[in-house]
Amino acid sequence: MIKIFNTYSRSLEVFEPHLPGHVTMYVCGPTVYDVAHLGHARTYVAFDAVIRFLEFMGYRVKYARNVTDVGHLRETGEDRMIVGAERLRKHPMEVADKYMMEFFRDMDALGIRRPDIQPRASMHIPEIIEAVEKLVDKGYGYVIDGSVYFDISKFTDYGKLSNIKPEELLMHRIDSDPRKKNPADFALWKESPPSYPFSWKTPWGRGFPGWHIECSIMSMKYLGEQIDIHGGGQELIFPHHENEIAQSEALTGKKPFVKYWMHTGELTVGGRGMHKSYGNFITIQDALKTYPSDVLRLFILSAHYRTPLDYSEKAMEQAAENFEKLINFFENLSLIAEEGRPKPRDPSLDELSNVFKQSFVEAMSEDFNTPNALATVYDFIKKVNTRLDVIGHEQATHLRQLFLETCRALGLLQKIERRSSAAEVMEFVKMLVEVRRELRKRGMYDLADRIRSMLAERGIMLEDTKEGERIRIVR
Prior knowledge:
By secondary structure, this protein is of the alpha/beta class. Helices cover 45% and strands 15% of the residues. The two termini are 38 Å apart. It catalyses: tRNA(Cys) + L-cysteine + ATP = L-cysteinyl-tRNA(Cys) + AMP + diphosphate.
């Protein structure tokens, strides 16, 4: 039984999708006006783990993640895409194309599974205009010159997601147009000023969509009028997701628009949010120059997705150490599996495997608790490592498969086949072991010890036992 913390109810709820065995999921994607940073990585790695675990548990997930390439306004009223275009002195759509492709490459590099659908806001303008017309016809929207606003007084549940009271709304509203009925009303469609690069013809004149209506329309077009899971960063709870609920439920008359709202915590550096103005902005591309993608994933998954996560060199070093644990364990099991070591099956290891899988599932089923899930993985590694001497090749194969399945439910060790295969390593090591054995027979102990030392320097330990040499990866 999977439980999800629902931001809307502010409580853990048993996960029951609308259609048993099937999950519809929408996560707010990037505004492609600049390169993606580790804050983006935190959100998308976390939701990637959610999707992978749901599939691990047998669900079929239909996943959409949008691209915002028009209409994302700052608190100052500036359009982020226009700001990016002015910085690069290019047309906004050139900027959007450039950073969208870079974002896709970053996600691929992090091993984040591509969504089933990746809609662009600018490709859905007709549907957005039609939806705004319907909201006006139903009395939820009203026109001021060429702009259209949503009348929040007509939607009685407004503020329930964010838990913001009506009297507090003015502190959060970004659009200060004095002509609005209520200062807290938000834009569905904005009139474009002369020579504005984003402009489409509508019944109200030329303009461009509000940011919030874009996600409502794209999510409902591809996933239906009622979605199982909608996710994003905590900074999107208000106003973005609050407004999505209002306009979507006003359009369809169906509640709830989203059954489970999920939000990731902030990524900080030294306790401060990651922003260019603070000088602590780390792009995904720069981070990947220093650390493998699995190390970044382990760092992100080391904290529960809802909690703040602080970036530091110490935290990254710990993630790198944990990555080596995973790799060494995999390669030790691979050496045993592929050398054909005949050993009787150890029933206690079968029991250990069952307990491990059950513990892993229980951890992830409790609101996708990745730190607890990783703790079960590390504990499994520790316990199996003490029994490597008694494991035969058949049981090693089983243990390795279980280990990979659970790691990949978190998106880890996806590229491990691309490393030098354990079989190739084993053949080379066996050759050196035979040379060392012959040297010892001839009394050439210095050379034999030199081979042993050279292997140890590369993380391959030789242990002389009554049954012969035992090989172990420890790097």
